[in-house]
Design goal:
Order of helices and strands: EEHEEEEEEEEEEEEEEEE
Oligomer: single chain
Number of helices: 1
Strand order of the largest sheet: 2-1-3-5-7-10-13-16
Radius of gyration: 15 Å
Distance between the termini: 34 Å
């Protein structure tokens, strides 16, 4: 059960334990191994940053109200458009809507080189790519795929991929492409 709260922005944008942080960057830098970073409603991203690399983190949002943006811009379509901010990290997203604003069918958009990713009760809008070294778990997630997308998820490398209780809707094409 989630304990995430909607708060006034004056308190901060992220919380670890009882401590509020004014920026997501400050919260991630302060986080210890396995800390839960609770996010308020609004938009977040770590795209183009390095401060989360190599950490084990959990981000918990306000269901339906916390948005996480990944990918460079709406028309970029190469590996350079992907999010390397969790390289070497093990990250869990819980109760968060992950959005890529792509307007073209794109490859490699998503998270590159994490050790592992876990998505719990998340909505993933448009296609998510994964190029990593560990396991990826999707539990009770909704994949809402735009018509421009070829797949909901493209997994280019990694160990094991788990999809438990997930729903796929949108493009009426193939939903998962795995390169093993």
């Amino acid at each position: 059960e989630s304990n995430a709260q909607i708060v006034e922005p004056a308190q901060g944008v992220a919380k670890i334990g009882e401590t509020w942080y004014q920026t997501l960057e400050d919260a991630i830098k302060a986080a210890g191994e396995n800390d839960v970073i609770k996010l308020i409603e609004g938009e977040d991203t770590t795209y183009g940053t390095t401060y989360a690399k190599g950490k084990t983190l959990q981000f918990e949002g306000v269901e339906g109200k916390t948005i996480w943006k990944y990918g460079k811009d709406a028309t970029a379509s190469s590996e350079g458009a992907s999010d390397y901010s969790f390289e070497g990290s093990n990250v869990t997203f819980k109760n968060i809507t992950l959005v890529d604003n792509l307007t073209v069918n794109s490859y490699y958009r998503g998270f590159i080189r994490p050790v592992g990713l876990n998505f719990e009760n998340c909505t993933i809008k448009n296609m998510m790519g994964y190029l990593g070294v560990g396991d990826v778990h999707f539990t009770d997630c909704v994949f809402d795929v735009a018509s421009v997308c070829e797949y909901a998820v493209k997994c280019y490398s990694g160990k094991d991929f788990y999809f438990n209780g997930c729903t796929f809707k949108g493009n009426n094409k193939a939903n998962i492409q795995l390169y093993i």
